[in-house]
Design goal:
238 residues, alpha+beta, five-stranded mixed barrel, elongated
């Protein structure tokens, strides 16, 4: 079981998929835990082989406390989970999860705040999370009208927006995959949004504008250029 869990953590690290599960600040903990579990597993295996060579039976520790499961079941369950994880390739969250969780252009107090905020002097250098954080600090969209924008994210066809709008979206991760949440900004385009499939990654360049959508004044990107891009190695922002 120790070998399986150690191998699982190191597999996610070596394949680069650990970025989908953990914030980069905590990746080293998972790597260290993976090596530690592998080391313990090898030590346990070596000890077991040594006892077998000597003909000494391996005994289970005496039960000194109450167990919910029969002896050995909890270890078998953990081993089964680790083996399942070794067959499983984690994928980044996509549009369906974003719609279910609700895409916002501001950060509510009940959500973990991004751990970094870059105050770029040029608006076109701001990332999507920079814009969202800016709106969180000063939510008056007119203050940004006319400024240039160049952001990257994936497409969501928000059901509450007209057909010539989509939402450019990124997930923000503050600790692990369990706490990710989506943020985004509406993008106005020429034509119907179905030209761009949901979950397609785009670089959106244009100018900021203020519009009333779904009864609410919002900051909107008036797209001048839409460029398809590959999904980043790490699709989350912080």
């Amino acid at each position: 079981m120790l070998l399986a869990w150690g191998g699982l953590m190191l597999r996610f690290w070596l394949t680069g998929r650990i970025n989908i599960l953990l914030h980069p600040d905590y990746v080293w903990l998972a790597i260290a835990a993976g090596f530690a579990l592998l080391g313990l597993g090898v030590a346990k295996l070596w000890e077991g082989l040594r006892l077998l060579r000597r003909g000494i039976a391996i005994t289970q520790p005496s039960e000194s406390h109450a167990n919910l499961l029969p002896p050995g079941w909890s270890s078998a369950l953990l081993l089964a989970i680790a083996l399942f994880g070794l067959q499983f390739t984690p994928r980044a969250f996509a549009s369906q999860v974003a719609i279910e969780r609700g895409v916002a252009d501001t950060l509510t107090l009940t959500r973990s705040q991004p751990q970094s905020f870059r105050t770029n002097t040029r608006p076109e250098d701001r990332s999507l999370i920079d814009w969202v954080r800016l709106l969180n600090v000063y939510p008056e969209p007119d203050a940004y009208t006319g400024q240039k924008a160049s952001v990257e994210g994936f497409v969501i066809h928000s059901p509450n927006l007209p057909s010539n709008y989509f939402t450019i979206t990124r997930f923000v991760i503050t600790c692990c995959a369990a706490d990710v949440y989506p943020v985004g900004l509406p993008v106005r385009i020429e034509g119907d949004r179905t030209i761009y499939e949901q979950d397609q990654w785009l670089r959106v360049e244009g100018n900021m504008a203020t519009e009333t959508l779904d009864g609410q004044r919002q900051l909107v990107i008036q797209a001048a250029s839409l460029t398809p891009i590959e999904e980043p190695q790490n699709p989350y922002d912080y």
